[in-house]
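Q: A reviewer asked whether we had any structural model of the full assembly, not just the individual parts. We don't, so I'm hoping you can provide one. Inputs are below.
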Amino acid sequence: MAVDVIAPKIIACSWKHQALLAELGASTFYETYSDQNSEEDMRSYIAKTYSLTAIENNLAESAVSYFVAYGNEKDLGYVKLQEVEAIDGLNGKTIELEKIYVRKEAQGSQVAKMLMDTAIAYGKSKGNKFLYLGVWQENYRALAFYKKIGFEQFGTRQFQLGERICDDFLLKLEL
Ligand SMILES: CC(C)(COP(=O)(O)OP(=O)(O)OC[C@H]1O[C@@H](n2cnc3c(N)ncnc32)[C@H](O)[C@@H]1OP(=O)(O)O)[C@@H](O)C(=O)NCCC(=O)NCCS
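A: Here is a predicted structure for the entire assembly that you could use as a starting point for your response.
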């Protein structure tokens, strides 16, 4: 059951948010996928992707932007966007919604929608025609959320987590 989130707000991140993004990234990734993966695979992926150094490197890239949602006096979720080169099947300037993660306690509230609205507004403001993302084909909750927003499938790709190969759908939203 989602908590009521009182007056959530979205902040554009800077280097000052590196520790927050590392912790929020690691804990929401763990909450989402630990049931389906070995502890070892989870730990090694988290160490590689959500270490302070990894986040610092991401923040230093001009193509990458993070936004974090706050509410009830804590950080509740984030979105990571990345400007990309041409993507097969998309004819026009494109930005990737690389990650959108909301803490379990705030899922089902307005936080995810606010993060998505921010991603859409940011993508448009940078002159993009498409927002695209990859989502695990068995992540039914995320798929339902993207469908409600208006995303449509245009391809597939694979994603490796430790030993496991996961099949992703590629989804696009015309901005
Ligand atoms: C994906 C995510 C950002 C969506 O945010 P959310 O707050 O859960 O969004 P919603 O509550 O609006 O849920 C979206 C839809 O999912 C469906 N849904 C809700 N609970 C569900 C459940 N337990 N199982 C399956 N579908 C469910 C519903 O269709 C819901 O639509 P509704 O509001 O019409 O009922 C959020 O669930 C999340 O952070 N998940 C973990 C991280 C993740 O998977 N990120 C995406 C990686 S690609």
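A: Points you may want to mention in the reply: The first helix runs from residue 18 to 33. The helical segments are 18-33, 39-49, 52-60, 111-125, 140-149.
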